[in-house]
Every structure is written in structure tokens, then in C-alpha cells.
Amino acid sequence: MAAAITKMISYLLIIILGYALKRAKLFKSEHSDIISRIILNITLPCVIITSFQSVNMSGQLLIILVLGFVFNAAMLGVGLFFSRFGKDKSEKTLYRILIPSQNIGFFGIPIAQACFSPTVVASLCAFDVGNAAIMFGPSVILASASMDGRRPTAGSLLKKLFSAPAFDAYLVVIALSFLKITIPTPVLTFAGICGASNAFLAMLFFGLMLEVNFEKSDILVILRIIGVRLATAVALSIPAWFLLPLHRDFRIGIVLCMIMPVATAAAANASSLGCCKKIVSGSASLSLVICSVLALILTAALA
User: What's the CATH architecture for 2-21+35-206+214-302?
Assistant: First the structure.
């Protein structure tokens, strides 16, 4: 528990550090675009490889994978509904891309590793595969369509999904797991070194985008995004805990996944699409604070 608390406080301090460095003019907001590319294309796929390398896919884990897909598809549906009320293209896009995303890879898995059994960690990894299938595919495609006005096609969806390095990494490690092939040690060593910087870069990314001078309309958008995410997650996590016929450790992992904060990858994609960066960072940062508290409460109750 102490390790989880220390990790969460450290995340928040790195966000503050990034904001302070920007205020000191050592970095600019534009530098966040470079960091987001590093996260999406290098460090996040490496985190997936190292986190999933010891997971052996079973029938129950496949069920959890499907549940992750269904849950995030439901979140995308909620995001699409609320995007109808966005006042401009940027706001519509934010609902479509920030609501259907859970920061499982670098936030949830470290907490599970510090406080729960390997079974819980495995369930988070499986759930994140389904989460990623929506986050890197339909969510991004529909968000892009919101910005440029073009209708998405099946071809564009598949191209976007399979061109996401993080999703490709999941496909590779799942295939290797089914084939009982062990990832070579040199590959794991390389991935471990690169992936170790993912959490720091992600929090620095949020800090560089962060602004404290919000207009009232910006605050309302941020609160609406966070409120919708939390309300939907709570509404779905309660029946998941009480009704799913799965082992307790698996249900712990599922509930933890549902209350995760806004995913770094989703925030990076929103930024690259031209959405308002201070709303993106504000949503991600506030989501991190609130979900950290919820994760601590759940950890204390279930660990």
C-alpha cells in the first residue's frame, strides 16, 4: 500500500515538475508533441512487452480480454452521445477520444504489481488488450472524423488500428503466449530500459500541456468528461463485481481497470489531432488525482 501511495504522489510531482519547467521557459508546450510521439511509438509498446511477457493466456483471461473490449466499446458509445453536444470540433473530438480510454499500462499495472497477486496483474494485461483495440482503432478514427469531417471506413479503421505500435505489441505478445514462445532475454532487457521511462515521460507530457488559467467553458468540459467517465465506470463496475462468475482476483483486476484515469495514449492522440491542449492536460491530470484516490480506496478494501 505504501508503495502504491508513493508511486501516485510521485506521478503528481512529475506533472508539477513539467509545468514548472515550462514556466521557467526551459521547455515549451510544443515540446509535448515530441514527447507524445516517443510515448506512442517507443516507450508504451516496450511497457506492454515487459508487462505481458510472463502472462499465460487462459480461458478466463480471454473472457476478460473480451470484457475489456465490450467495456471500452460502451465507453465509446457514451463518448459519441455526449459529442453531439460539443460546441465545436475540438470539444466533440475530446469526448470521443478521452472518455473511452483507461490508463492501465503504466498506472494500473504498477499498482497491481505492488499490492496484488500475479493473477490480478494478468487480468489487467488481458483487459488492456480489449481496451487498446477500441482506443487505438474506432476511438481515434471517429475522433479524426470529427475533426476533418470525413466519414470513417472499415479500411481506414483497420489501417489506424494496426499502425498503432502499442496495439501491434499486444498482438505479438498474445501470439507468443499462445505459441508458448518465450521472449528472448535481450529483447526484454532492451524493452525494460525503454519502458522504464514511460511513466516519467507521460507525466512530464501532462505537465508541459498543463495550464492553470482556464475559462469557465473549459472547466465545464473537463468536469463533464471526468464526470461521465466516472459515472459510467461505477455503473458498470458494480454489476461486474457482483455478477461475473470469475475468480475474485480476476474481478479485482476488472474493477481496477474500469476506474483507471485517462490514458496517456488517448491524451497524446487528442493533442496530435489538434484538440485544446489545456483541456486535454486538465482532464488527464484531474482524472489522475481522482482515480488515484479511488484506486487507493479499492486497494485498501480488496488487497
Answer: Up-down Bundle (1.20)
